Amino acid sequence: MTALQPETGVRPRTATAAAGHTAATAPFPTGFAWGAATAAYQVEGAAAEDGRTPSIWDTFAHTPGRVRNGDTGDIAADHYHRFRDDVALMRELGLTAYRFSISWTRVQPTGRGPAVERGLDFYRRLTDELLAAGITPVATLYHWDLPQDLEDAGGWPTRATAERFADYAAIMAGAIGDRVPMWTTMNEPWCSAFLGYGSGVHAPGRTDPAASLRAAHHLNLAHGRAVEVLRDTLPSDARLSLTLNLHQVRPLTSGAADAEAARRIDAVGNRVFTGPVLDGAYPEDLLADTARVVDWGELVRDGDLATISHPIDLLGVNYYTPTVVSAPEAEDTGRERFHGGHGASDHSPWTGSEDVVFHLPERLGRTAMDWAIDPDGLYELLMGLHREHPGLPLMVTENGAAFDDYVSPEGRVDDPERIAYLHGHLAAVRRALDAGADVRGYFLWSLLDNFEWAYGYSKRFGAVYVDYATQRRIPKASAHWYADVIRANGLPGPA
């Protein structure tokens, strides 16, 4: 994709690069995007500056008991003030693309009406700084930070929110559409719908199964309406995408009951989005599974599916760990079944399939999130999408791991576990490419340590360590390793 071609020429090697790096695998395709990703609320800070007003995550984080240690994103990684230094760091690491999200309330404080120019100016400056550094900007319109005013009016379970999102998309396209070649409408709408309105472990913290399904449909509709607006506003060569955290679902055993559990979770975890967006219809089994929860005939209006299924140019895939499920046994009671890797709750995010039990795979390494490390899951996910939608380009838009990183007395952050994680998952991408999958790029999550949602600052996903007291940035060993991968356009051989 020409919009994501790397710089021409060869960058000088920096002091961070390991000597003697050679690619042991086949090179990645010419023009493969090598990036890193962040989200506005997790890194920007400046929560009440230049006209920004609260989003649902501001409200959620400031509610006692919602976020570990009472942490908030008020300051976060202070990217709002330090973005130029952060872009310089990206350039040093050799990134060819940077995926960032836009804070809706920074540019449209109530989610309605005219934009705040000071907010737009931040994203203009960020975009210009990236372009000057030879880094392709990739903008995500929505990464979970709904304006609190819109939540007060009903939030995503309310149909009008989709129209407000289309208005917001038009504002951003008009502001930076001439310089941003790739747009993502939404990041992980499953989390917004089912963690936000089902289990309540994410903002806005509601626990209403019907609201979670209504939210899912209106998020789909908002995506489709945004695609319409962006197509009308952006240059003809702009590329539009949607990013999904698709669950690589596996039954615990080969038994029929566990296979049925996997089908149900695949429906409400994956096909609730891929069905209408890519195939133009909600799956019949999903409708049957959830018929007692919501009236789909009332919810889905004439024309909705045509809007939702407007073609996209690329599908973003976020992957961290597989999802292993089984049918319940008699002793499977209590909230632990609802953990599912997303935080404990007495309420299930799996609307219509609350009785399914989730398992941590045995004999696999774990991250600091207690997520199983399994690169095969990424390979299987990419190949499944390739088989089911062979003409649709794919991009890994998030992949990474949290570990218990610390600064050594010598001032280094050594994270060999993260290097092994990234190596394994990039090798899985390479295998998928070799098997015919059309994968256009890879975005490491995350560029910086940041506010990890309900976990606060207790988990570190960054390739760059952030000392939150001083805001000092220290590239970890994994950042130097990733820089060498980018420079070689391939994975290294044995040390």
Describe the structure.
The chain is an alpha/beta fold and 495 residues long. Helix content is 38%, strand content 13%. The chain has a single domain, classed as Glycosidases (TIM Barrel, Alpha-Beta Barrel), CATH 3.20.20.80. The protein is built from 16 helices and 13 strands. Helix 3 runs parallel beside helix 5, helix 14 (375-388) packs parallel to helix 15 and helix 15 runs parallel beside helix 16 (477-488). The longest helix is centred in the middle third of the chain and has 25 residues, at 209-233.
Q: Order of strands across the biggest sheet?
A: 1-2-3-4-5-7-10-11
Class by helix and strand content?
alpha/beta
- By oligomeric state, this entry counts as single chain
Total domain units? 1
Cα end-to-end separation: 33 Å
Order of helices and strands: EHHHEHHEHHEHHEEHHHHEEEHEHEEEH
Q: How large a portion of the residues is in β-strands, by DSSP E?
A: 5-15%
CATH level-4 homologous superfamily = Glycosidases
Low-confidence stretches: 1-21, 333-341
Mean pLDDT: 93
The number of helical runs is 16
Question: Any key phrases for this structure?
Answer:
13 strands, alpha/beta, eight-stranded parallel beta barrel, 495 residues, hydrolase, beta-glucosidase activity, 16 helices, disordered N terminus, TIM Barrel
Element layout with pairings:
Blueprint: E1 33-37, H1 40-43, H2 56-61, H3 79-93, E2 97-101, H4 104-107, H5 117-132, E3 136-142, H6 148-152, H7 160-176, E4 182-187, H8 189-199, H9 209-233, E5 239-244, E6 249-251, H10 256-279, H11 284-289, H12 296-299, H13 304-308, E7 314-318, E8 323-326, E9 357-359, H14 375-388, E10 394-399, H15 416-434, E11 439-445, E12 464-467, E13 472-475, H16 477-488
Parallel strand pairs: 1-2, 1-11, 2-3, 3-4, 4-5, 5-7, 6-8, 7-10, 10-11
Antiparallel strand pairs: 8-9, 12-13
Helix pairs in contact: 3-5, 7-9, 8-9, 9-10, 14-15, 15-16
Keywords: Glycosidase, Hydrolase
Family: Belongs to the glycosyl hydrolase 1 family.
InterPro entries: GH, GH_1_N_CS, Glyco_hydro_1
